Amino acid sequence: MSEPLSSVTITRIVTEEYGRCVATLTRVLGDIDLAEDAVQDALTVALTRWPADGVPPNPGGWIVTTARRRALDRLRRDAVGRDKEARAFREEQPQDEPDEAEEGGPVHDDRLRMIFTCCHPALALPARVALTLRLLGGLETPEIARAFLVPEATMAQRIVRAKNKIRAARIPYRVPHDADLPDRVPGVLAVVYLVFTEGHATATRDDLAAEAIRLGRLLAELMPDEPEVLGLLALMLLTEARRPARTAADGSRVLLADQDRARWDAELVAEGLALVRRCLRRDAPGPYQLQAAINAVHASAPDTAATDWAQIVALHDQLLALAPSPTVALNRAVALAETEGPAAALIIVEELAERLDRYHLLHAVRADLLGRLGRDDEARDALDAALARTDDPDDRALLTARRRRG
Length: 406
What we know:
The chain is mainly alpha-helical. It has helices at residues 7-29, 32-53, 59-77, 82-92, 100-103, 110-118, 125-136, 141-147, 152-168, 181-201, 206-222, 227-240, 266-282, 287-300, 309-322, 326-340, 342-352, 360-372, 376-387, 393-405. It contains 20 helices and no strands. The longest helix has 23 residues, at 7-29. Belongs to the sigma-70 factor family. ECF subfamily. It holds the Pfam family Sigma70_r4_2.
């Protein structure tokens, strides 16, 4: 025993080890609920012993060992659990570990099995997000409920229903077979990115964004040969690097063009750029890699004027070819305004107006282009349309300020 106990230490251990421990115990015990209960029991024991003994050198291993023993003790007391006890006993024996042919996937890590279980397409997307944060991230149900602005009881029911679905539908606890992996990885990445965007959209939810990045690092560790995994991690890092400059002293939001780039997190930028370079060397572009590359161009420029807008337009062209969407087309139009002028960009924006009429940023972009063309009355009307389509206080403050200046 070496490390002294503190609340910070306990929090770090729970965050870093919880998902690994629950995932390992799920394989050993064959039951997610039993695994969670066993880990909670072990943490209770830790809180009793560690103040006197100190934190073990391998706290995760200690938790797993203690949790396994507690679970087996519980099963021995429960006649209904005899079959599970026999299975758990077999799982403890090294010669009975699942072999490569049985598992069928390229990576055999308990956490990776758990990620694919939590993100199985049979589960609704909100359930996938909730389970991933609970079982891999170690977040408590009240924390997840607060993050997604739903009542705690609603989130608890969502998690319980998802676990019941896994049990009833016999969703396998395994990495998909090689042939199925390409179809399953995007769903996993979508869950992690949804967690990140939820955290990044609100200046005060940096904890949720940090959890998504932690999951992204975990995926990159477990699936280092999947370029889209690296692309998603790079995208999140380069986006999160701008967080310190996104908010002014008065708490208002600062747009990318107006941000003080000296305030960007240099370490996150460097890590993100290195990952983008790794992706480029693989020459297997995907949507997350292309979005990361777009952010890399921004991150490499000392200011907005020096940005390689032609490169950003070209990357958006590739992104539209791989993952066409009106929002990608809108973002391309913003870049096109810097290379071919606002009139060329406005033509595209007008073509998107019907499909994106309810999207306030469509009207905000249109207002900017109209203003640059000297069509001030139309620009003010477009700003009014943008204001009518958002309730976000930060967005409304930005639009209102623009309206007053116009």
